[in-house]
């Protein structure tokens, strides 16, 4: 059976940096063909124009599809599902689909829609990425321009205009598989650490919290989470229901403020650990999980040679979740275990290498 196409949902308030993050991802797609579904509000079409006009090879104009008939989570049947089907029915389907929700849309109804029979066997939610304005959240504002967000809500009479932004923010957090603290260059080191710790403590187990400037995240961190979020709705229920019919909203979240001039590409690092054969795959998987938890590793992937087994063991870990399977016979090269470790800058390479080699 053909593998399902992965889709990543990107959510967050107006001004958090969603479009900037997506543009950076497209500029660093590494040959991956990515299609975008953008939930514009009204006839603005700003995000779509920004991304269509970006001149990035990974993102042709036909790969950007806009939904501007209202909030995506309220127009699932008549708008979102048909759009997704058009993408899936193409002769050359995309490798990955990225959906940018409007700023006040709840991600939960959208994720739930991936269980609809029309698409459930063909596409899966790779993960939900919630982008937050680190400076605003640290100051208790949740958005850079609260007045602008409230003005958006007033434009749609179907919206609940009374719910505090803090509750909408909690719903976006509740659905996240990864939380991106954007604009982290505007925070001190202590503020970054405190906010990361707070958001991690308030989230489900396994939710990753990363910091970024100008949305600069490596594509191997952002995509390929393999969560299957639509099968895990119980854990990410809405804390509140904010719609009457719709959820609202907005959009031109292009937000690039002028004070960022460098993209902080050195915020992430990766390195390779090699070790001899392993004897017990289950025990090694537990060992990998412990090392990931102890050192806050984002991704770990590679191959292991198992004593007495002609096949190599593929290992892939996203946060503390480790998957492994035998994929193909070892070739003529040396039988060894080789793992790529990916995380935010400052990983203790020596300690991680020692722990994985034990």
Total strands: the figure is 12
Largest sheet: 7 strands, parallel
Note poorly predicted spans.
42-47, 242-265
The first-level CATH class of the largest domain is given as: Alpha Beta
- At CATH level 2, the architecture of the largest domain is 3-Layer(aba) Sandwich
What is the straight-line distance between the termini? 39 Å
Oligomer: single chain
What is the strand content?
15-25%
SS summary, helix count: 11
Question: How many discrete structural domains?
Answer: 2
CATH topology description of the largest domain: Rossmann fold
Helix-strand makeup class:
alpha/beta
Characterize the overall form. globular
Which strands sit side by side, in order, in the main sheet?
3-2-4-1-5-6-7
Describe this protein's structure:
It comes from Roseovarius mucosus DSM 17069. GO terms for molecular function: hydrolase activity; nucleotide binding. This is Cobalamin biosynthesis protein CobW. It holds the Pfam family cobW. Keywords: Chaperone, Hydrolase, Nucleotide-binding. With 358 residues, the chain is an alpha/beta fold. It has 2 domains: 259 residues, P-loop containing nucleotide triphosphate hydrolases (Rossmann fold, 3-Layer(aba) Sandwich), CATH 3.40.50.300; 92 residues, Hypothetical Protein Yjia, Chain: A,domain 2, CATH 3.30.1220.10. Helix content is 28%, strand content 23%. The protein is built from 11 helices and 12 strands. Strand 6, helix 8 and strand 7 form a beta-alpha-beta unit. It starts with a strand and ends with a helix. About 8% of the residues have low confidence.
